[in-house]
Amino acid sequence: MTHEPFMEQSGWSSRSAGLRAWQTLRVNWYLGFTYFGGPAVNFKMFHKKFAEDLNWIDDQTYRELFSICQALSGPASTKMLYCINLLHSGTLGAVLAFALWCLPGAIGMFILAICVSSIGDALPSPVYALLSGLNAATVGIIALAAVDLSEKAISDKLTRIIVFLCASAGLLYNALWFFPALLVAGGMLTAGFDRLWKDDAETCDEREPLLYPDTDSQIHAPVPKQGFRFSWRKGAATITLFLASFLLVMAIRGFVPGLPLLYRLFSNLYLAGTIIFGGGPVVIPLLREYIVAEGWVSPRDFLIGLAIIQAFPGPNFNFAVFLGGLTAGNHGIPIAVGSFLAFVGIFTPGMVLVHGTMGVWSAIRGKAWVQSVIRGINAGAVGFIYPAVYRIWQVGYMDRDFQSGRSLGEDPWWVIVAATAYVGGRYFDVPAALAIILGGLMGLFSFPHVTKTLLAQHFKSCHLHQEAFLNEHQ
User: Fold this and answer.
1) Residue 405, SS3 per DSSP
2) Fewer CB within 10 A of the end CB, N or C, for the chain?
């Protein structure tokens, strides 16, 4: 069966632009207010909404988009939503969906930057308990999303191994080149495996996907009706123009002395948006390096924003809006200017790249080896979610004495909060938004218990030091 072209020419279909814009608005307007939990959870929700409920795309197309969005730099879940609306409603619909998705959280982070810029050096203790509860609930939600996506991505023993190895490697190393290299390796591994053993009937049976049992769907992916059409030449030109702009921005940054703060802020985030592979889980440590290490934002304010962004709907990349606003405010520049530049800098690279890639993808998506590569990239991308769980766990517990964050395992209450979010979502269909709110409330209710635990640990530590001192002087 021949493969229909994915996209061929730009422009809207015969239906009116106004009607398509209204449909995009009707379907997407509330997502930026209600989809909590970060990219891993958002992918799961997008599949249910657009592939299962609305039937805008089929499962095979969803898998392809998932692999593209994970393999390219930038905010993965935001690119996924953009691409789904691009296929169904064209460029204007995709841009509208992007704005509806990002702006609610971005405005919230801008307001948070205004608030944090005016607070003192220490927050009330109950606030730290609230933030810790939000972080603990987020850990449970992301862990649940990792398990659910693993069940969909694992189709045989090889993909199970890839998920495990990528998760393990992501825990041990965090170099910028590491994540895309592992994704490429995973894709090459499955492509080579399928090439060598494609005639093995037993292997073919074993590789039957868990989520996509219809093997024909792996060979022929129906093209969405009324989809946006885009040639590979225009896609390649879009990618080339972006790379030229990136080189220009970096050249000015590297060779022009005495650049103003706002340009350095924009260039740092433009660079971050270009080299971040793996989406939201990877952006946190990189933004810490490019903002906090520069001395523009304090570690405490960084962690406050980190805790709040976990409880915000929409993309985690909106965290850059908060950091950009604080950077500007701390240097006497209007916070709105810093937040706007940060928003443009962090989002532009990924969105332009994925738009161009959709055209190039149309020329190669029907190849058998491409489907094999997708299988490996899918598995590797899911594996990267597990290190995100660990990293938030390690810095999620905040109090007056540890404003830079420490492990949630310091107190068993936070383990209970994380487990409650996981069990509620897994077995009782508790929405992610409700689980996060419940986590914050459990954090507030735990304040007397946590304070008592900390005091007990403090007195025990003092007692041990006293005994050691007496033993030394006997």
Assistant:
1) coil
2) C
Q: Which two tokens stand for residue 139?
A: 């850990």
Give residue 43's identity as a one-letter amino acid code: F
d(CA 436, CA 444): 13
> Using H for helix, E for strand and C for coil, what is the string for 33-54?
HHCCCCHHHHHHHHHHHHHHHC
Q: Taking CA 376 as the corner, what is the angle to CA 370 and CA 382, rounded to the nearest 5 degrees? A: 130
Helix residue spans in 154-260 (DSSP H)? 157-172, 178-197, 201-206, 232-255
Minimal CA–CA distance to 155: which of 194, 126, 106, 102? 194
Look up the pTM and report it: 0.72
Backbone angle region of 332, left / alpha / beta, with phi > 0 → left and psi within -120 to 50 → alpha: left
Instruction: Give the residue-averaged pLDDT of 250-267.
Output: 92
Q: Quickly count helices (H) and strands (E) in the chain.
A: 20, 0
**225 vs 247: which has the higher pLDDT:** 247
Give the distance between the most distant pair of CA atoms in the chain: 93
pLDDT of residue 213: 36
Residue 406 three-state SS: strand
Cα–Cα distances (Å) from 212 to 70, 155, 159, in that order, read: 19, 9, 14
Q: What is the DSSP letter of 215?
A: G
